[in-house]
């Protein structure tokens, strides 16, 4: 990317963006913050509505909200009014806002996530959560268990290289490396055409390795697994994945006698960024994490970077042409809160389109910066 255009992108963000983007841009990319400037920006972030909500959901034992990846079980109840009361959503918000890992909220939450008695208490409020906690270590290899979420949340908040999380980091690495040992998804799946299940699809057994979004996020936010050889192998596995997977693949995980949907298992090829799909939040998130793992050694990342450079145009601003007010409203709604498979708006308000362009442009600058650092 021409430095002139990148400078325009950065100038646009410095002039128009709110405290989260200002902080992340200057902390992670420009790396020019003084201690006083950093403290001031963080203090502004701590006053944002979403952060204040998360702060209000912290329990005396350190856990945030109720459950994890289970907002549908709680929504509508009197004491559960926003998705940020879901433990996973809270962890993601803290990660997206780049809250320092030493912050008391994060330190307390991570301690709670490492305390089995606290976890047992937190996952006993409603009947579905009790067996979920009891079987929490099942499905680690393919994204089928509660501990997948708990380990990943620790990685997102900066604690993925702790000794108790490292085994899951290794599992995440093996999940991707396992792709190099198959020729197609059918090599590891079983299909029972006589099954009476409402949704019958191929399945894998609970111990079979296969990568999901949570494995990718864990690798993206940790360092203990990284060396030139391992990064190269992961990149090779991801490139190979895109050659052997089909767009119509589907898969379940068999745990005991039950079948579960994995946590966004990567059963279809990764897609390169397209200018007319700027609004695809899930894809932008995935491309960011792929870049964090393997940079431009990953084909889809390298191809996406070229499209992003073109999309920024001459003024360095990434925009989205909405086809209708409905599409615009849906886009805003999709970024209102952090979800398991989507991001959250870094700008505190989307009342003005400039705020949307700030979020999109920061993503573009971040992606290109990650690739440049990894090359």
**Largest sheet at a glance?**
3 strands, mixed
Radius of gyration: 21 Å
Count of β-strands? 3
Poorly predicted residue ranges: none
Helix fraction? 40-55%
Distance between the termini: 14 Å
Mean pLDDT: 93
- Summarize the helix and strand pattern as letters: HHHHHHHHHHHEHHEEHHHH
Helix count equals 17
The strands making up the biggest β-sheet line up spatially as 1-2-3
User: Helix/strand-derived class?
Assistant: mainly alpha
Shape category = globular
Strand residue percentage = under 5%
Written account of the structure:
- With 375 residues, this protein is mainly alpha-helical.
- Helix content is 51%, strand content 3%.
- The protein has helices at 3-16, 19-30, 35-46, 49-56, 71-74, 87-96, 104-114, 116-122, 129-134, 146-156, 166-177, 213-220, 228-244, 281-294, 299-312, 325-334, 353-374, and strands at 203-205, 252-255, 258-260.
- Strands 1-2-3 form a three-stranded mixed sheet, with no helix packed on it.
- It is globular.
